[in-house]
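pinging the channel bc i need a second pair of eyes. not urgent but kinda urgent?? the chain im working w is below, pasted from the shared doc
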Amino acid sequence: MPYEQWTALSARIKGFVSSVELLTRQPNLLEGSAKDVLLETARQIIATINEIATAADSGQLGRILAHFAMPPIPPNGTIMGSIVVQAAIQLNSLVSEVDFLLENREEPIRLATERALRHLQWQIAADRDVQTKWSNAFTEGEVACERLGATHLLWHGICSFKAKSDGAATDLVLGEPISSDIVHAAQGLVLTEWKKVPDALEAPRLAERARHQATSYSKGLLATTELRSFRYIILVSTRQISPIDDVVVQGVTYRHVNIACDPYTPSRAATAVS
């Protein structure tokens, strides 16, 4: 389930909570027809939450919601207005917890990854030795690029890994399974797929292939520091290539980043890739 749908669901919950707050100022209304409307809204919201929690393709959001037990509201019989208030309290708490788990834990990792990749491109542009090292790696091949890139990301506290065909995670530098000491030492773990792009016209096809390889990752590292809602497709080229839009698949954003080993200046790049 795309994370945009959580935004819509949480907005619906907040609307429900606001309505209940208004009605609690007029307690007699909570035993009238308004109560029945709110009860049905609460039932629908709870049913949606349970559907997401049990769906096989709901990703990180489903795993988070599965930890929250939302008791169903009986479909009929005499139900007191206090049930509506209790549902509002539980759902309001749910929104706060899910928003925290989805955003606060992942955002620092995502920003650190973005900063590390920007730093890498600037370092290549500013440091002739680094540029030579990356040009040599580009000539050597894709594995050399991903090893060099993974080493750079670790300077920023980011352990980048790739997906194996069996869905497990592999260290990009050593080519071995991610060890527990790496999990505990890194600020964040990020799935990356590195592709050498010898021809700019091949970039979209190579990016699609990298996304397909990244989707094979399924086992998870059981680490709270793992960036689950973003995966990075790193396209390494000689010169800058035209940007490729991000792609969202089942709630995961595939972010495309170009690293140029012999980059144009920004003004020259603007005309070269347009």
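so The two ends are 34 Å apart (CA to CA). and The chain is about 55% helix and 15% strand. — does that match what u expected or am i reading it wrong
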